[in-house]
Amino acid sequence: MNNKSHFNVKDERNLTMLVDFYELTMGNGYFDKGLKDKIAYFDMFFRRIPDEGGYCIMAGVEQLIHYLSNLKFTDNDIEYLRNKNTFSEEFLDYLKNFEFTCDVWAVPEGNPVFPNEPLVTVRGPVIQAQFVETMILLTINHQTLIATKAHRICSAADGRPVMEFGSRRAQGYDGAIYGARAAIIGGCNSTACTLSDRMFNIPAVGTMAHSWVQLYDTEFEAFKAWAEIYPDDCVLLIDTYNVIKSGIPNAIKVFDEILKPLGKRPLGVRIDSGDITYLTKKCRSMLDEAGYEDCSIVISNSLDEHIIKDVLDQGACIDSFGVGERLITAKSEPVFGGVYKLVALEGNSDIIPKIKISENDEKITNPGFKKIVRIFDKSSHKALADLITLRDEKINEDEPLILFNPVHTWKRKKITNYYTKDLQVQIFENGKCVYESPSVLEIKEFAKNETNKLWPEVLRFENPHTYYVDLSQNLWSLKQSLLHKYTDSYES
Amino acid sequence: MNNKSHFNVKDERNLTMLVDFYELTMGNGYFDKGLKDKIAYFDMFFRRIPDEGGYCIMAGVEQLIHYLSNLKFTDNDIEYLRNKNTFSEEFLDYLKNFEFTCDVWAVPEGNPVFPNEPLVTVRGPVIQAQFVETMILLTINHQTLIATKAHRICSAADGRPVMEFGSRRAQGYDGAIYGARAAIIGGCNSTACTLSDRMFNIPAVGTMAHSWVQLYDTEFEAFKAWAEIYPDDCVLLIDTYNVIKSGIPNAIKVFDEILKPLGKRPLGVRIDSGDITYLTKKCRSMLDEAGYEDCSIVISNSLDEHIIKDVLDQGACIDSFGVGERLITAKSEPVFGGVYKLVALEGNSDIIPKIKISENDEKITNPGFKKIVRIFDKSSHKALADLITLRDEKINEDEPLILFNPVHTWKRKKITNYYTKDLQVQIFENGKCVYESPSVLEIKEFAKNETNKLWPEVLRFENPHTYYVDLSQNLWSLKQSLLHKYTDSYES
Asked: What residues does the Nicotinate phosphoribosyltransferase N-terminal domain cover (chains A, B) (predicted)?
């Protein structure tokens, strides 16, 4: 499989107008006030991990690049906007000749990421950097949500293959298409979504629906026909009528009468309803007794990480899982709450950090142009902590590093014998893309390697250890001074 | 606003390949077994209303029509499929010349719909009718989910306008674009999604983000600039620093110093964080005291129907709501579980009903080619019940109608003084579209009228009355006979 295959298709839609209207009213405002070329810095980050989990898996950067590379307002877009009677002709003229000139940095896909880390940072004329807010959030929020959920589900499956089966219950077409992409990044082996295979070279799989069985007068005839057509990879759906009394006996009969004479072995049976633990144990023993110890049992009935863990704990005999609606919508927590906030402005020669204060403490932002440094232990190669620093800070790896909790600052930790890695990479320089996305399967492999560098305590589902994300002393001091400045101003 | 406006853009993507792979393996199988022209009937229906609600709002038919009207495999699609080494050349040739020839019936958008009702029925060659499964489910599941959630949220707002603000947290681009469309059908007044306005003529709205305020040295300067640019529809975001100590005083100062001299009134203030009840009451009294009784208070902080009902019950002073992530993802229950099942085949001259049995009772299907009849009371014009009947059954409205519970058949009810309406309409005849979708705003109005025909007991959030969906005596008897036939076959 080759990502550069000529079979690949791209999303040809122009999504330039997929923008919250307020970005246009603000753009018109910046333009009117002569601020359009004011250089601003924005960070995209999230505040909380879904499902009370310990980590997230970054995803969506390739689609973000595609969007940023294709920003263009058509004449009809301009005419539509003119009819809103909200925008000046000068602003509409600016949009007509819009050219993206920002610098953009992002954490590459597949990296484990944590709350308050700038996953994407945009530097450029405020009117542009503001404009891309909706699509940055929409793209990264969606795919990171699904990649994270998929990683949890695949962890629960404990090495057994997981197939993504959710297209029909996804939230819209892209929910299916890009959701399947993110599910593979999170660890799924394959997808039912043919278009996602076509677009991203991720393996699409599938066998039969209940309708195939219903179409024939008897279940046996339906199975027989299938085995005749697909003798090499025969998987039968055995729960149309009754798994134990009808499905398994008919399957075994077909394996005996059709496959055996051809010298073929059956690939599997699939169960899509009923009591998974009971049915799979019973099926396993019936298959084994008939000499089909190598016939897989596939399960696909409203699964998620908790049900998978439960049925495996109960001794269910399952070889692979098809996971649908609860994966493709991240049902247990279907929102990834990424936000996009102004963090700095450029003066004549310096960077002026900006902060957003809030009555909700957790909504207070980290000011300034920053980066994320991941700190690894030199002996175990495990990730020990992330440190958010100002962009120009340097860490001398030969010296001990003091980390401290940004709220309870007396909680301090001295790190020695470590090395560091900058997480963000530049993806756009002055509006030109300077990064080539790996293939989806390469990203999946990368995600596997990088999550293996986290301690099991961070990866577990129940009460995971909170991975340390600390601020450098410089950044912490800067934040404190800005907080005091603003609260002093209206308390005085 | 005119739905035929030349500003409208269409989704130009070819979504033919957005299909579960098993529909292709089954298609190849039908082809191989000479069954491709076997005429089959499939029903799309759902089994349970999200959020323990009492009703759903049908949505997505316009997009379904768009998909069915544009089915086409490109040469590259065929080449991609050939490389799967799964399909016969004859089947690939069939796909290359694929022409949709099915009949399709659907419940028009905006209708209240209930469990087990065939929302979409497809009749045609089994290979085709099977192929469209994924897109029918994906399209109707998504938009019906969001329209239903929006209707709940708008009901809670009790007449106050609700704006859809969720694009950034949607599950993919279409989650935002078509989610906004469905939200309007469910009752929202406007959306932040500019592209949805462009595509469907639904009003896009928006003012400022926190970044506008942060960009200026002081909140007052930021508000002043905004009021100068937008004196006619000035809405200020007042929670960047501190609502009561900074936001409201600065807003009032700007209303006094900028708008008043121009003879303009402020439109509103928006609060996006903090204690809604406390803040809005305090804001209201401060605005009133300053002479701005007509200035609206807009709230937009992680709202849903329950929070809206709560804060209004607590006396919060709110004039309109912006609702984001919990609407656009239907967060409380983000899956609409529609399924698509084979219900009949055509013999030489008759229709052979088909059933799917299951260990889960609720997964047993209603067999046969059917229709939905809604029964209205002649005096109140309220909907009394829906009756699922075989397609050729006729109800004589001059005679009393006996309804009975399909499980507890002794629960019977005699209806008199009623009239009936068939819910499904034909949308495709022999592959040609025979239905013109109303505009989104027309559908919204229709949904409002039709839901008003339900009793308040069906519409309420907590323990709603279960709307009656019964089977005709003929359909019930048919189902029983098929159930007995199959269970007898493997019990004997």
From this structure: 17-141
Q: Which chain A residues are Cβ-neighbours of B177 within 8 angstroms? A: 18, 172
φ/ψ of B428, rounded to 5, equals -135, 135
CATH number, domain of B88, equals 3.20.140.10
Asked whether residue A245 is domain-assigned, the answer is yes
Asked whether residue B117 is assigned to any structural domain, the reply reads yes
pLDDT confidence band for B7 (50 / 70 / 90): low
- Cβ separation A342–B214 shorter than 8 A: yes
Tokens (6 digits) for B208: 């400022």
- For residues A377 and A449, membership in a common domain is answered with yes
Size of the A and B interface in Cβ pairs below 8 Å = 341
State whether A424 and A441 are in the same domain.
Answer: yes
The domain that contains B228 carries what CATH number?
A: 3.20.20.70
ipTM of the complex: 0.96
| Tens-digit pLDDT profile for residues B265-303 | 999 999 998 899 999 999 999 999 999 999 999 999 889
Write phi, then psi, for B233 (nearest 5 degrees): -140, 60
Cβ distance of B134 and A168 shorter than 8 Å: yes
Residue A159 has phi, psi (to 5 degrees) of 95, -20
Q: Which two tokens stand for residue B157?
A: 């707002």
- Comparing CB atoms, the residue among B22, B206, B273 nearest residue A207 is B22
CB A320 within 8 A of CB A345: no
How far apart (Å, rounded) are the C-alpha atoms in residues A436 and A266? 42
Position B159 in a domain: no
CB within 8 Å: B172 and A138 = yes
CB-CB neighbors (< 8 A) of A25 in chain B: 206-208, 230
Task: Name the burial class of residue A7, with classes exposed (0-12), middle (13-18) and buried (19+) by CB atoms within 10 angstroms of its CB.
Answer: middle
Q: How many CA atoms lie less than 13 Å away from B463 in the CB half-sphere?
A: 0
Indicate if B478 and B409 belong to the same structural domain. Answer: yes
The answer to whether residue A118 is domain-embedded is yes
* Same domain, yes or no: B307 and B348: no
Which residues from chain B sit within 8 angstroms of residue A327, using beta carbons?
none
Dihedral over Cα of B1, B3, B5, B7: its sign: positive
> Do B7 and A83 count as a contact with CB atoms less than 8 A apart?
yes
Q: Which among B444, B329, B52 is positioned nearest to A332, based on CA atoms?
A: B329
* % of chain B with per-residue pLDDT over 90: 89
Domain of residue A184, residue span: 147-328
The residue among A21, A79, A228, A241 with the most chain B CBs within 10 A of its CB, best to mutate, is: A21
Best B22, B148, B242, B485 member to test A by mutation, with max A CBs in 10 Å, is B22
